[in-house]
Amino acid sequence: MTGHRGAALLRGVSAVGLALGLPVVLFALWWLASADSTNIFLPPLRRIVEAFGQVWLSDVFVRDVLPSLRRLAIGYAAALVVGVGVGYVIGRWSLIRALTSPILAFFRVLPAPVMIPVLLVAVGIGDATKLIVIALGAVWPILLNTADGVRGVDDVQLETAAAYRLPSWTRHGLILRAATPQVFAGARQALGISLIVMVVSEMLMSTDGLGFTVIRFQRTFAIPQMWSGVLLLGVLGFGLAKIFELIERRALRWHQGATGREESW
To answer: For residue 112, what is the DSSP state?
Structure first.
């Protein structure tokens, strides 16, 4: 048992090392390449790191970053609920899929920021508009992957469930469970999209938040501070992606065992 725990710990440390290795190398190269920079728009990384500590390790984090994370969480959660629910219905029943296919083909190619002027008129300036924009941007990968996953469920499973006369809610649960790998694939794509749309919406129509602060630094020519915001966005994106991978590995452990895939970061 002790040997097994030691091996698991070693694998965990190795996975963390592999995940952080390339970012650390790129960070070191950036530091060295920019050390002697005199370009006002490309300051040395040393100055950016100093600005990072001054700006984000202060009350600015509570005032601007936490509201952004709250909007991201709410918008992403709404996209998950709507995307999985509507995607299941579309994937499960062919008539609904045929009726909604033209509408989906139209709306899924519209970039979410395009809806900002319309929402400003219809909803007004406020968190509601930003939440709707985030949800609109994130919902499509989840919806489409869920629909494909439900459509691809093995007919043998459905016939077996029908032969055993399982209740309808149990059959729906089995179908959704079988489609879970593709649901997670769509949710992974949607996480990155929601972060991008959150920043864009805050840059265009907000008085607080991470995107607003970055654009304010740019307009006042506080270039190191602006770059520190970009750096923070990269760190947040990386951290959220790794947290999502941990959740996905736990939720899809049954799938990894069935397919023989090894867990990886």
So the answer is: G
The answer, yes or no, to whether residue 148 has pLDDT greater than 80, is yes
Q: First vs last Cα of the chain: how many Å apart? A: 24
This prediction has a pTM of 0.84
Could you give the percent of the chain with pLDDT greater than 70?
84
Domain ranges of the chain: 1-33, 43-259
CA dist., res. 214 & res. 147, Å (int): 37
The pLDDT tens digits for 229-245 are: 999 999 999 899 989 99
Beta-carbon neighbour count of residue 224 at 10 Å?
20
Euclidean distance between CA atoms 17 and 12, whole angstroms: 9
The type of residue at 130 is: K
pLDDT of residue 15: 61
Integer Cα distance of 97 and 83 in angstroms:
14
CATH value of 43-259 in 1.10.3720.10, 3.90.420.10, 1.10.730.10, 1.20.1050.10? 1.10.3720.10
